[in-house]
Specification:
The chain is of the alpha+beta class. It folds into 2 domains: 113 residues, Antithrombin, Chain I, domain 2 (2-Layer Sandwich), CATH 3.30.497; 57 residues, no CATH class. Helices cover 28% and strands 16% of the residues. The strands form 2 sheets. Strands 1-5-4 form a 3-stranded mixed sheet. One of its GO terms (molecular function) is serine-type endopeptidase inhibitor activity. InterPro entries: Serpin_dom, Serpin_fam, Serpin_sf, Serpin_sf_1, Serpin_sf_2.
């Protein structure tokens, strides 16, 4: 399916600094998948690679919405860390906890839970220092959006008439974030 987009829609896409591209999903789904991956890899300066996994795009795909974001920054103040340990101290009364933050997912999950619970339990403003970390998430948003009752875009009866005169719908919505 070769979509022809309306001028007003293309102008809005340009204004939002987004990009759109036609692809031949039916005959060249592997090449389209690779083109998306190459685009995302280049746009994120090689931080996000292999954005679309095999099987996400198939000959039955009609359209795909992708969202790739990454953040790579430095803290304003350096974080002084003990080997594999972090300590949180309360002001006034002395309360401290030590968390093993090794590189395993268990250590990071434990840290996330403790930080969240600590912040939630403190009734006044506190300063919390967090070391440099890396988080990566990738998920297909179809199910989440449908659960939020945003079902129309994924239906063959979707109305994208302000975008194009060609009848279309969204086959996949994919999000990946790297911090």
């Amino acid at each position: 399916m070769d979509l022809k987009f309306k001028y007003q829609f293309l102008a809005a896409v340009t204004q939002m600094k987004c990009q759109m591209k036609n692809g031949d999903f039916k005959k060249k789904c592997g090449a389209v998948r690779q083109e998306i991956n190459t685009f995302v890899q280049k746009a994120t300066k090689n931080v996000i690679k292999d954005f679309t996994q095999p099987g996400v795009i198939s000959p039955d795909t009609v359209s795909v919405i992708i969202n790739a974001i990454y953040f790579n920054g430095e803290w304003n103040e350096p974080f002084h860390i003990l080997p594999n340990k972090m300590e949180f101290e309360g002001a006034g009364e002395v309360t401290a906890m030590e968390v093993d933050v090794d590189s395993s997912a268990k250590g990071l999950e434990q840290l996330k839970d403790i930080v969240f619970n600590t912040i939630q339990s403190v009734p006044e403003k506190r300063k919390v220092t967090i070391p440099k970390f890396g988080v990566e998430s990738l998920f297909e948003m179809n199910d989440q959006l449908i659960e939020l009752e945003l079902t129309d875009p994924f239906s063959r009866d979707a109305n994208f008439s302000k975008m194009s005169n060609t009848k279309t719908y969204v086959s996949a919505a994919i999000h990946k974030a790297v911090v």
